[in-house]
Amino acid sequence: MIELFLSQLLNGLVIGSVYALIALGFSLVFGVANLINFAQGALLMLGAFFAFTLIQWGLPIVVAGLLSIAATAAVGMLVERLALRPLRNAPAIAPLLSTLALAVIADAGAELIWSAESQPFPSPLQSFVVFVGGAFLTGVDIATFLVALAVMGGLMLFLSRSWTGRALRATAQDPEAAAQMGIDVALMRQVAFGLAGALGALAGILVAMYYQSVFPQMGVPFGIKGFAAALLGGLASIPGAVLGGFLLGIFENLASGYVGEGSRDLIAYSLLLLVLMVRPQGLLGTGRLEALGGVAGASGAIPTTSIIASLGGATARTRNRVLQPKPWMVLAVIALAALVPAIGSAYVVQVAAGCAVFAMLALSLTLLSGSAGVISIGHAALFGFGAYVCAILARNHGWPPAAILPAAAFGTAAMAALATLPAIRLTGHAVALATLAVGQVGYLLFLNWIELTRGPMGIAGIPRGSLFGLSMQPLDRQYWLALGLLALCYLVAHRLLESPIGRTWRAIREDRPAAHAAGVPVLRYLVLVAATSGLIAGLAGAQFAWLQAFVSPDSFLLETSIVLIAMVVLGGMGNIAGAVLAGVLLALLPEALRAFDEWRMIVYGLVLLALLRFRPQGLGGVK
Amino acid sequence: MTAALALKGVTRRFGGLVATDDVSFTVPGGQLLAIVGPNGAGKSTLVQLITGFVRPDAGHIRLGAREITRLAPEAISALGVARSFQTSRIFPGLTVMESVLVGTQVALIGGGRQPPAFGGPKPPAFGVLAEAAAVLFGLPRYAARRRALEARAAATLQLFGDRLWPRRDQPAFSLSYANRRRLEIARALVAEPDLLLLDEPTAGMNPTETGELAELIAQLHAARPALTIVMIEHKLQVVRQLATRVIVMNHGSVLVDATPAAALADPRVVTAYLGRAATSHAHG
Description:
Chain A: This is ABC transporter permease. Chain A: The chain crosses the membrane at residues 12-35, 42-59, 65-84, 96-116, 128-159, 191-211, 231-254, 291-316, 328-345, 351-368, 403-424, 431-450, 479-497, 518-542, 562-589. The complex is a heterodimer of chains A (623) and B (284). Chain A is built from 26 helices and eight strands. Chain A is mostly helical. Chain A has a two-stranded antiparallel sheet with strand order 1-4. Chain A has a two-stranded antiparallel ribbon with strand order 2-3. In chain A, a hairpin with a 2-residue loop joins strand 6 and strand 7 (470-471). In chain A, helix 1 runs antiparallel to helix 8 and helix 2 (40-56) packs across helix 9. With 284 residues, chain B is α/β, with parallel strands linked by helices. Chain B is 39% helix and 21% strand. In chain B, helix 8 links the parallel strand 7 (195-199) and strand 8.
């Protein structure tokens, strides 16, 4: 018994030291640039792959590691150049989502270059084993721990003793005062990103040695755990990042030792959500998270998270031409679309029905992220919830569509209200982080709750049943049902947005403290918008399950959430007509790119990046 | 009679800095109190404390007979406390009219108290689902209440002459600095508060605009004798013109609490503002 405890404790210390390195990268960037860098996980993955390639070329592992760290530091600086510097006066979400877009491009690019499969990574010290009490440590464990400790110590010395380190800390505390003292603040931001890249690469190499493999998807889970560690300690706190890393590592290993290995990630993400709910400033942190206003937030004349106000002063009115058709026009277009089966093949109808589902999803997310300003990177989990409700009720319990539709809609609405609670006390970038964790928890549940979801095999043969005495088996009828649901959801969303409820959502987005001061029960309206968004996502999920007659966790990956974000930005945040249009356009994209399927996510990433840079108001304009 | 607002031993520290140190005072209903003092004296912290944005480390704050020390900002607001911020917070992406209407939301759903000015008994409240249903199905009771509050918002905007009303459909961020301050005050007034807290309402205004706003506050004070106003103000001219009482703060404590004339002439006040050397110089 004590052996298990000791061994999990030691393992926790080792992996925790890696988490601490990742967390330090986040903390440095967050401190200096006030930005949660979603590309941190991608930097880790790239660092591991660079080292992998150099070792394949015959370089010794230490040389390959050092070269990889230098190269990844350069990539980190490139992230700053692409995602932060050009967007300093852009809406606060622009740099955040840009790092997300870069991460997507890096992940998909790595799959193109190195293949999506896991590949063996050499781990020369693995056979060297030391026994400590009843537990044992391998040479890799010891090397990992010692290297990580040495780097942490070196970094602390660098930050406290060197001129550059002090300049970095000064920039983190007050960029304007630092600039007046002659510090090149832009350079310091770049240095922070470079250091984050170097730390990420080192962590990546250590992880690759620890698990003896490299694969393109490794960035996401380690990225999130790095966040979790940084947040646990207190985001802007360097000692906090180290403490958070060790605590997370130990906690996660004890949990996987006593509860089961499958629960490792689930428990790590749940811990992240718990911290966000109970103590969002972390163990050693300050209340700074609450003051998050993005890169330009601190110095702006109007303290706000408004995307409209940051479009650029008086020109914003002319630049932000808002597409807002009358509802009957949208209904007329949907009615016209109903004629597709008369002219198109079954393939065309299938694609069109998919477009209707994604239009609903974009509509659903633009209410939450666009109108109410709760940036969600976990929306796929709600979509999946609706799909699984439909699949399980239809296949295992024989429910008819007339019962499944309300069950999926209201079930997902309740789920969404519940899942948004951790994010509700947070603002800005921390919300994005919380929703990312919620999305991953959802995905892991779909994957691991095998008795209910059949795990990775998915649920096949979902019966379409009959509605009002009509068999829903024919594809055309499924398509018409999808269009009908889209029309209904559009009308509901339009009605709510044009009412005092929609005005209150936008007020909360524009300035939450002022909304509190004006007596608005903010929690009530955030729960309402989450529930409405969940209701629509649940209907979309149910429709998706019937259309495919099959659901599996693969449809509800992080990728799906990111595609939805791209749709919302393309449509214009908070613009429902724009969202429907963008949902259709981006759902068509994979069909147009069918021959280049592996390029799909890269194209989505580039679309998102270009939009944020050149047209943050999207096609339809921000509303 | 209980005071409209009472602070007792209110202390708040930020790290090593004591922002307010054992502050106690009471404000009778209908008073127009000005709080002055040098930068960093703790004036804005006081407003943050009263409105629930910052919680005191020690002490009690009462609104009438009601203890509000640990209430959330929206709960305090719903009890009839409205405020403006030092940096105008006006919901930049909303139109001017919408920005004011945000201040009526709590009345629309029947939360909080019924302001006497609204007349009649408090209407029944709309729960969250009831409100959504009212919107979706066009419930007449909700629509009527909405129209009444829109009329009230229009009347409030018209208090500011042609400064805000002609611009009601423009986005709030397009307003000038002075108009943003007016808009914030309009949003505070539309809720018909019993206690109005203004944090430097004339900051950044030129003398004409300052005079205009002072005149507006004077009119308000005359027209609504029950309304208690607490304003932080740097412009001593405005303080002399408006206030019936002045509290001078320094280093987080109440230095002087007197009539405007007496407070502003107090040598301790001159010292707090200008330092000792200047005082001895001034005294010759």
